[in-house]
Amino acid sequence: MTQPAPVTISEFVNSWFDTHRAEVISWRRHIHRNPETSNNEVETTNFLCSILEEYGLKPHRYPETGLQVDIGPDTDLGRVAFRADIDALPIQEVTGLEFTSEVPGVAHACGHDVHTTIALGLACAVADFDKAHGLPIGVRVIFQPAEEVWVGGATDVIEWGALEGVHSIYAVHVEPKLRVGRIGVRTGAITSATDVVELEIKGPGGHTSRPHLSSDVVYALGKVITELPGLLSRRVDPRTGTVLVFGTVNSGYAPNAMPEAGTLSGTVRTADIAIWRKMQALFTELTEQVLAPTGVEHELTYHRGVPPVLNDDVATALLAAAATSIDPQAVVQAPQSSGGEDFSWYLEKVPGSMARLGCWSGDGEQHDLHMGDLVVDERAIGVGVKLFGSVVDQFSRIED
């Protein structure tokens, strides 16, 4: 009598999600209704712990908010890890969904509720596989707080031991410009380093009829705004995607008075980690050179943010293979984004890859991230759970 072929991890997770679809969607809607901002994710953490414990798991809470959970054995290879960010944004939701945010001025407008639900679904599905068949490798699921604040909660989570014994790490980010079912992959930089600059300029002030008797703060601000981006483009390879944009400028109070002070702030972004590492020194040098002829005094504050997310080539190939095993048409080339993402801190320590997860229904408006009207097609949750399940399956074959 022919014995049936043993079920694979991917097949099990696919079947598990199809059976538990309504339950998983209800988790997402609960999280969406009850958003919590960065470092305040207390009830979200409690909810995640309660679900994981129902499935027989023993989550490890971080000192403040967030948690991680291990499934399966420790092996010489190390664990495959998955990261989900659990915080929401201080934004008013205007979607009108039946499960809209019940917290005024706070909403999951970046899709973190979807990321969290996918990771939670994976953990529960893999736990059930482990009970039924025994996992051959170890899995770790990380529920990270505070992705949306400077410089990201990933640095704390890493300090708390999230990467100890980890071989590689994976994540997804919803993409409302991509149709649901599509998975965007990219080797190398998929996001950019993001730094913030603040410049304060001071001078004696005076009357606009006698500019020669004063240092012109407004003129100095104008020189920085117009000249610094151009100078930067001549000192940095344009293929690195390095962009300086100022977002605020403030000075003055009357048309005939030369102010004594002014401020300027903006962001510097680059997809090249080598450029990022030397950017502060270069920016300081160019600012001093631009302002030297004006006679003003200045104080530059340079806030280093997150490095670019640099997807490892081997990990990205595994991620693409996992996506293709679900749907041969799923994989598309993800564009390089100028946005920042603190998943990059994990990739400074271990190899890994982040994918773009399509969440547009294919009909109607394509909403954008960090907007109160963001609507995610919930079919993306199933795609994400099955993708991660396939990654676990692919990873388990490394030891073969």
TrEMBL record:
Keywords associated with the record: Hydrolase, Manganese, Metal-binding
Cofactor-binding details, from the entry: The Mn(2+) ion enhances activity.
EC number: 3.-.-.-
Sequence positions that bind Mn(2+) 1: H173
Name of the protein in its database record: Putative hydrolase YxeP
Binding of Mn(2+) 2, residues: C110, H112, E148, H370
A molecular function GO annotation: hydrolase activity
Residues of the Peptidase M20 dimerisation domain: 197-290
SUPFAM superfamilies: Bacterial exopeptidase dimerisation domain, Zn-dependent exopeptidases
Listed cofactors: Mn(2+)
